[in-house]
Design goal:
There is one protein chain. The protein is mainly alpha-helical. It is 77% helix and 0% strand. The longest helix has 27 residues. The two termini are 28 Å apart.
Length: 283
C-alpha cells in the first residue's frame, strides 16, 4: 500500500524545492548572462554534478535501470535543461522564469484536461488569460524579450511540465531522479561535443554549474519528486506559481535587473489566469 508523506513534510519539501527552482534561474542567468561559461558546458556540468550527488546519496548503482518511463523522464530533463540554459543567454531571470512557469502550468493543466477532466467556464477564462499574458510578454515591442530566447524557454517549460507529471508516479523519488540525471548526462555531453568551438570555462562559471547541478537540481529535484507524492496535479501546478515572483525579486536584488511595465502586467495576467484555472479545477 502506498504511503504518502504528511502534510507538514509535503509543505517543507515543497518550500525547499520552490527556493531551489528560483535559485536555478538565478545561478544560470548569473553564469550565462555574465559570460562565465558557455551554455553547453553549463548543462553538462550541471547534469553530471547532479548525477554524482545522487549516486553518492543513494549508493545504489545497481538501481540504475532504463525503462520507457525513465528514458522519457531523462529525455524531458535533458530537453528542459538545454533549452533553459540557452534561453538564459538572452533572457533576464524574472522574464525567463515567468515564461517557463507560465508554460509549465498551462502544460500540466491541459494534460489533465485531456485525461478527461471537464473544464468549467472560469477554467477556460483562466487559461485564456494566462495564454494572453504569455503572448503579450513575447509579442514584438520595445520591451519584448528576444524571440529565440522566449521560444527556448517555452520549450523548457513544456518539458518541465511533463517531467513533473511523470514524477507523480514515482515510489522512490531519489532513485528515480538519479536515473533521470544519469541517463540525461550522455545527451548533454553530445551537445557539448557539437559545441566545442564555443567552449569557454571559468572557475566562477564552473562553480555556479556545480551548485546548480548538485544542490538546487540534484537534491532539489529529488525532493520535488518526493513532494509530488503528497500533491495533487492541481496543487503541484499551483505552488509553482510563486517561483517567477521569487526569481523576479532575486533578479532585482542580486542581478540589478529592471522591473518593466510589460513584465508586471504579463505577470498579473499569467499568474492570475493560471490561478483562476487551477482554483476552478480544485473546486
Amino acid at each position: 500500500m502506498e504511503t504518502r508523506p504528511s502534510a507538514v513534510k509535503t509543505s517543507l519539501l515543497t518550500g525547499f524545492t520552490l527556493i531551489a527552482f528560483a535559485a536555478n534561474s538565478l545561478f544560470t542567468r548569473t553564469a550565462l548572462g555574465g559570460g562565465s561559461i558557455d551554455a553547453a558546458s553549463f548543462v553538462s556540468i550541471r547534469l553530471a554534478s547532479g548525477a554524482v550527488m545522487l549516486l553518492a546519496i543513494t549508493q545504489q548503482k545497481k538501481s540504475l535501470s532504463i525503462t520507457k518511463r525513465s528514458w522519457t523522464a531523462a529525455l524531458m530533463l535533458f530537453l528542459y535543461a538545454i533549452a533553459f540554459s540557452f534561453s538564459y543567454l538572452k533572457l533576464a531571470a524574472g522574464t525567463g522564469a515567468l515564461i517557463q512557469f507560465g508554460t509549465v502550468q498551462i502544460t500540466m493543466i491541459l494534460v489533465a484536461l485531456k485525461k478527461g477532466e471537464k473544464p468549467s467556464l472560469s477554467e477556460w477564462v483562466g487559461l485564456a488569460l494566462a495564454m494572453a499574458g504569455l503572448i503579450y510578454l513575447v509579442s514584438p515591442g520595445l520591451e519584448a524579450p528576444p524571440v529565440t530566447g522566449s521560444i527556448l524557454m517555452i520549450t523548457a517549460g513544456i518539458a518541465w511540465g511533463f517531467y513533473s507529471l511523470l514524477g507523480r508516479g514515482s515510489m522512490q523519488p531519489v532513485v528515480s531522479t538519479m536515473n533521470n540525471f544519469v541517463w540525461a548526462v550522455p545527451l548533454a555531453l553530445g551537445v557539448s561535443l557539437v559545441s566545442l568551438p564555443s567552449l569557454h570555462l571559468s572557475w566562477n562559471g564552473v562553480i555556479l554549474a556545480v551548485l546548480s547541478g548538485a544542490i538546487t537540481s540534484g537534491i532539489g529535484y529529488a525532493l520535488w519528486y518526493a513532494a509530488l507524492r503528497g500533491l495533487t496535479a492541481t496543487r503541484a501546478a499551483t505552488v509553482q506559481l510563486s517561483v517567477p515572483v521569487l526569481v523576479a525579486v532575486g533578479g532585482i536584488l542580486f542581478l540589478q535587473e529592471a522591473l518593466s511595465v510589460r513584465l508586471m502586467l504579463s505577470s498579473l495576467m499569467v499568474l492570475g489566469g493560471v490561478g483562476l484555472a487551477v482554483l476552478s479545477r480544485e473546486r
